[in-house]
């Protein structure tokens, strides 16, 4: 039985064994580039076609739609924002870009960079339920809005945004709509046509795929200028030779994510609920955030009143239980919660736990025991310090 417990799967996931195994030959034997017409290049094509099929299937995308393989979800998000600037802003003068106050760093910082070029960025507010409403978007868009960019679901809280309604609003106003689907793929059932996005991006290593992989989906008929220049690869959407090992591994990860979706929506959701119930039973003051909202089946945000989340995170880390308080691509979890109306002190006592599809009963039982005993110990220590 593994000694560590990894409950930070919204940050990254462990690549699956099948993914790694499928990649190895393309690192050691099939190392050509597909743009070359000789056999070393052409023998890569069957594996590439298989990977493309798996990615399209996970997205339930139409073959007429375009896919751009990127080095990460971050690159894909930046590609969308920069392309809209060149394709829309420079040609129409529409220089207004919208994201959410609790969105992830790539979208927020990409929009902020455009402000240096005369554009205006606005961030929509969130409700006390932790999601962005169509009304919140309507409150910040203008006739000059070129793009609305949102995460489909928040990776720290798991709360899902009503994206179809927001997409409808964007269509009515002639605004392009981008969704970062990193945290929902393999965890949520959807009809891509009903979702209504113009661009969808995701990061491969959040799907048990390899690091250095990402995808940008572009709805048929939507223009997309390249972000990287220098060649005609990927139909001119992205210069540079395709990372074949990463593409092959990502294809495997997408196929596995689709196959395990039922598991995520049932068994993993049950284990998430068990984690919450166990922590609440052992530490009665624990606050379960957003458990009455529509959220991802593997995410939980729990507050531990009277305990600093930094201290709790450090203490759990020392016992090889890994979770998150945000940072990196994410905003700090405390800021996400305060933006949702949670009092500052309580917001900065919270941690995010995200389960993998490989989570199992004994692991969650051990996690409950460690979290509860650690929280009780730190609460007692805090009370002792206060009294003295």
Would you write up a description of this structure?
This protein is α/β, with parallel strands linked by helices and 388 residues long. The protein folds into two domains: 5-12 and 261-387, Alpha-Beta Complex (Aspartate Aminotransferase, domain 1); 17-259, Type I PLP-dependent aspartate aminotransferase-like (Major domain) (Aspartate Aminotransferase, domain 2), CATH 3.40.640.10. 44% of the residues lie in helices and 14% in strands. It contains 15 helices and twelve strands. It has a seven-stranded mixed beta sheet, sandwiched between helices. A three-stranded antiparallel beta sheet has the order 9-10-12. Helix 6 (105-115) links the parallel strand 3 (96-100) and strand 4. The radius of gyration is 22 Å and the shape is globular. The two termini are 42 Å apart. The mean pLDDT is 95.
């Amino acid at each position: 039985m593994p000694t560590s417990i990894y409950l930070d799967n919204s940050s990254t996931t462990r690549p699956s064994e099948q993914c790694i195994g499928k990649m190895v030959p393309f690192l050691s034997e099939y190392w050509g580039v597909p743009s070359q017409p000789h056999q070393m290049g052409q023998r890569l094509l069957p594996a590439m076609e298989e990977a493309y099929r798996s990615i399209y299937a996970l997205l339930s995308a139409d073959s007429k739609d375009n896919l751009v393989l990127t080095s990460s979800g971050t690159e894909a998000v930046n590609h969308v924002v920069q392309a809209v600037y060149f394709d829309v802003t420079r040609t129409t003068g529409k220089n207004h870009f919208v994201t959410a106050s609790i969105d992830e760093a790539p979208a927020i910082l990409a929009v902020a960079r455009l402000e240096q070029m005369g554009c205006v960025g606005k961030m929509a507010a969130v409700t006390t339920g932790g999601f962005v409403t169509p009304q919140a978007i309507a409150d910040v868009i203008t006739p000059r809005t070129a793009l609305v960019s949102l995460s489909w679901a928040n990776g720290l809280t798991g709360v899902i945004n009503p994206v179809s309604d927001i997409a409808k609003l964007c269509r009515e106003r002639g605004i392009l709509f981008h969704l970062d689907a990193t945290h929902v793929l393999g965890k949520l059932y959807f009809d891509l046509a009903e979702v209504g996005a113009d661009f969808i991006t995701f990061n491969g290593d959040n799907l048990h795929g390899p690091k250095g992989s990402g995808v940008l989906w572009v709805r048929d008929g939507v223009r997309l200028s390249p972000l990287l220049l220098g060649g005609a690869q990927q139909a001119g959407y992205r210069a540079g030779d395709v990372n074949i090992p990463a593409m092959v591994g990502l294809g495997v990860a997408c196929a596995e994510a689709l196959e395990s979706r039922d598991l995520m929506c049932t068994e993993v959701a049950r284990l998430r609920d068990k984690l919450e119930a166990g922590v609440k039973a052992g530490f009665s003051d624990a606050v379960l955030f957003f458990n009455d909202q529509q959220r991802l089946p593997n995410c939980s945000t729990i507050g531990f009143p009277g305990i600093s989340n930094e201290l709790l995170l450090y203490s759990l880390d020392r016992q090889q239980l890994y979770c998150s308080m945000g940072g990196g691509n994410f905003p700090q979890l405390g800021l996400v919660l305060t933006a949702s109306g949670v009092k500052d002190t309580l917001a900065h006592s919270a941690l995010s736990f995200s389960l993998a599809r490989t989570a199992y009963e004994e692991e969650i039982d051990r996690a409950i025991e460690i979290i509860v005993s650690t929280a009780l110990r730190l609460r007692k220590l805090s009370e002792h310090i206060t009294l003295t």
